[in-house]
Structure formats: C-alpha cells, structure tokens
Specification:
Blueprint: H1 2-55, E1 62-64, E2 76-80, E3 96-100, E4 112-116, E5 121-130, E6 136-147, E7 153-155, E8 169-171, E9 175-178, E10 183-191, E11 199-212, E12 218-231, E13 239-249, E14 258-268, E15 274-283, E16 291-292, E17 296-297, E18 306-316, E19 320-332, E20 350-358, H2 361-405
Parallel strand pairs: 4-12
Antiparallel strand pairs: 1-18, 2-12, 3-5, 5-10, 6-7, 6-9, 6-11, 8-10, 11-12, 13-14, 14-18, 15-16, 15-17, 15-19, 19-20
Helix pairs in contact: 1-2
Length: 409
C-alpha cells in the first residue's frame, strides 16, 4: 500500500506544477504586452514632437533694431515748431535748396568739415536757391546738432539757443531774399572760442521759411547742410556698454529651440565721433550651443550721446541658463574734407554680459508625464504579480487539496 502511494503522488504534484506554469506564463505575457504598450507610447510621442519641430515655421536668425544717421550729406529737411520770427511765404507750393558754397575750403562739398585750433576762425558760405517764380525771404542761422532716440542726427528747433558749434557761427544778417529762379551765396564766419574743449562738434547751417499749408496752419520748414568741426587737442575716444539684459522665450515644442532677446545701451564717452558696430553671442553653460550674430553697424555716435538697441537671436536651446555676451568695437570718424593731420587714436572695445534662466518647461512636463506613467505601470505590474501569485498559491493549494481528497486505489 505504501508503494502505491509513492507511485500515485508524483502524478498529483505534476498537476500542481502545471497550474503554476500556466499562471506564470500568463503573467509573463501580460508583462510583455504592457512593456510593448509603454514603448509604443514613447515612440508615438517622439514621432509627434519631431513632426511638429519639422513643420514649425522657422524664425529669422536675428531681428535687429538699428537705423542709420539722419541729415543727408548734402541737403536735409526738417519740420520744426512754428517760429514767429521766420519770414512768411505764400500758400502756393514753394521749393528751394541749399548747399555749401564753392570756396577755398572746397568745391561740390557734401557738407562742411573743418579742423581748427582753439581761438581760430574762418569764412565760408552757403548757397540758397529759390526754385519758385516769385521772390522768397529766408531766415538763415546755425544750430547745434544732437542725436535722437532713434540714433539720427537732428538740429535744435528754431528758437532754442545753441551752446556749442551752432553758437560759434555768425551771419552778417538774419535774413536773405532770393528772387525766383535765382541763387544767393550767404557768407558766414566760424570762430572757435579760445577755451573750446578739444574734440568733435556737430551743427547745421539752416535756411528757414514759414509756410502756410492747405489748412491755413503756418509751419516752419527748414533746409540745411551739416557741419562737423574738430577742435585740435588731445583726442580721447571711448565707448561704453551699459544696461545689458537678456530674456529667454521658449516654445511649446520640446524638440525646438527658443529665442533670446538682448537689450543694451552704447554710449560715446569720449570727445570724438565714433563709428561703432555690435556683435551679440548667446550660449548655454560653459559656452554650449552658442549662437552669434554677425557684426551690425550702429549709427554714428557724437560725443556724449547714447543709443539703445535690442537684438533677438534664435536657435537658443533651453539649457537651464543662457548668457549673452555683447561686444562693441568702434573707430574714430574723420569728416570728409577735414585736414586733421593728427594720428587717429585706437578705440578700446567695450564688452558686457548678462544671463537668465532658460528652463525647458515643455520638455520637463513631458518627462514628468513619462516618469509618472512608468511609476504607475510598475505599481500596476506589482499588483498584478501579487494577484497572480495569490492565484498560483490558490491553484497549488487546490491541487494539493484534490490530491489529498482523492481516494487511494
């Protein structure tokens, strides 16, 4: 009887092991299917992101805010406030022109350019041409030049007193009458004060006419020629870079780079005119993924003037932190026609930096979602394994119970 029991029990154990094997096979199949599901979701996410990055419209390499200097070399026009002292003109359209006179200082000059010692003086003239039929009476004077916020050269409005080069120019009379179709040379004298500070000065020689427009409003119309003067002495050119800031604008596409906007102010801190240019470089930590703009010319800077510029650089990746490096180089401008024999000094470049956070929020959000999905899947897998193990234990227990309850033949 004992030998028969030893013979029959292996068959019943085989039934328990078969149940265990089937349950574990089912567990492996479930695990493989869930793993394939996670891989499919990741692959679909990557494909969608790549398609969005390829189809997204590209931004320009950089957007620059720069303008060239105003007041053309030969003739310039500006509308200023009403000047009661200006001669009145008829309501009919009037046209006239001005240009430097042909003198010992040059012929067919685009503007006035001089180099004088403190206390020196010279005589020159401006040609005023009347292109209308009847005579016109113009007011003639000189006015200091200044830089506008846009980086353009402009002249003080009529009625505002000049304190530098504009005040050093004098005319024999304040008005000149020009017959229709005729031109008149109006002489003037430039006298540099003996205590004038060495360096560059800018002004304009202006002809002014009060014109009544169609609405009956009197408008002071001005035409003039630029004047540049370099007072001899020590030239100390200097360019300064201030107020550098950078902001980062990312995109919703986690597979695309964003834009960095850099703002800075350039100041001519010396006593010479400067022709300057800027280069902006944006990079991640340790110079990673650097993007640089080509050199862009700035407006010509008069001594003591400033211009503020904003540059947008695209293709900047959000690497946690981005830095913007701005470099401005400049050289001294010598006016056309000037006879300054001094050696032009070299201008030291100006550099400044700023940084800001560049967090890839969309990529981080996607990463958090993926991590959360993996964590949830692992928890679900552990619960499934626990459930399957209970089923295995129950199956084994049931098999053993059936074996024990089976009568022995």
């Amino acid at each position: 009887m004992a030998m028969q029991q030893l013979f029959l029990r292996p068959e019943r154990d085989t039934d328990g092991r078969s149940a265990l094997t089937n349950v574990r096979a089912h567990q492996r199949e479930n695990g493989h299917s869930h793993a394939l599901w996670i891989l499919a979701v990741l692959a679909a996410t990557l494909v969608v992101g790549l398609l969005v990055s390829l189809l997204a419209p590209g931004a320009s390499a950089l957007a620059l805010s720069s303008r060239s200097a105003a007041l053309p070399h030969a003739v310039s026009a500006a509308v200023g406030p009403e000047d009661p002292a200006a001669p009145a003109a008829p309501a009919a359209p009037v046209t006239w022109g001005v240009r430097p006179a042909d003198t010992v200082h040059g012929t067919e000059r685009p503007n006035y350019a001089y180099s004088l010692e403190p206390g020196a003086s010279l005589d020159d003239g401006i040609i005023v041409s009347n292109y209308t039929q009847g005579p016109l009476t113009f007011r003639v004077y000189a006015a200091d030049g200044f830089m506008t916020d846009a980086g353009e050269l402009d002249l003080l409005p009529a009625g505002e007193e000049s304190s530098a080069l504009g005040a050093w120019v004098s005319f024999a009379g304040e008005e000149v009458t020009v017959d229709g179709g005729d031109s008149v040379v109006v002489p003037f004298t430039l006298t540099v004060p003996g205590d004038a500070t060495p360096g560059d000065y800018a002004a304009g020689v202006v002809s002014s006419l009060l014109v009544e427009n169609a609405e009956g409003v009197s408008v002071d119309r001005r035409l003039g020629s630029r004047m540049h003067l370099r007072v001899a002495g020590d030239l100390v050119p200097a360019v300064v870079l201030d107020d550098v800031s950078v902001t980062y604008d990312g995109t919703l596409n986690p597979f695309a780079a964003g834009d960095a906007t850099v703002t800075f102010t350039v100041t001519n801190d010396g006593n010479t005119r400067l022709a300057a240019g800027q280069v902006v470089r944006v990079a991640g930590p340790w110079g990673a993924a650097a993007q640089a703009t080509p050199r862009v010319e700035l407006p010509e800077l008069l001594p003591g003037t400033s211009v503020t510029r904003t540059v947008t650089v695209d293709g900047v990746w959000p690497l946690g932190r981005v830095s913007a490096d701005v470099r401005v180089t400049a050289e001294v401008v010598t006016a056309i026609g000037a006879t300054d024999a001094e050696a032009v000094p070299v201008v030291a470049p100006a550099t400044a930096s700023a940084s800001t956070l560049a967090v890839p929020w969309t990529a981080l959000a996607l990463l958090v979602l993926l991590v959360a999905a993996v964590v949830l899947w692992r928890r679900a897998a552990r619960r499934r394994r626990a459930r399957d193990e209970r089923k295995v234990a129950e199956a084994v227990a049931q098999a053993l119970k059936e074996r024990d309850e089976q009568p022995v033949a």
